[in-house]
Design brief:
Elements (H helix, E strand, L loop, with lengths): L1 H17 L2 H7 E9 L4 E3 L1 H15 L3 E10 L2 E9 L8 E10 L4 E8 L2 H9 L3
Parallel strand pairs: 1-6
Antiparallel strand pairs: 1-2, 3-4, 4-5, 5-6
Helix pairs in contact: 1-2
Amino acid sequence: MSAGVSALADRFFAAVSRGDLAELDELYSPDVAVWHNYDDVEQTRAESLRLLSWLAAKAGPLRYVDVRRTVLDDGFVQQHVIELGGRCEGIRMPAMLRVFCDDRRIRRIEEYVDPGPLNARLAASGH
């Protein structure tokens, strides 16, 4: 299963990077929950897809660098730095995700990231 989970992780981050909502929709289980440390809110599938669409439009394409991933029995943990593109070029945000999944679908994501630099840049540019 670890090869399948790693392949799913690769597909997930590639889809987020390019803002591919159709691929993300396929990877998410119907009842996926996505939690963020910065607001302590659990998003539904629709809310997560809407946020990722917004992020791709405002700061895409995204690049994941300095990736460190550990596959677990019930998913994976990935630490990385997100390099933003577009009007947010130059912003780097260290992040960590704990993802609960099998080799086909993501059931839960817990994301630890500070979106402050992104929000400040967008506010300064009037977006």
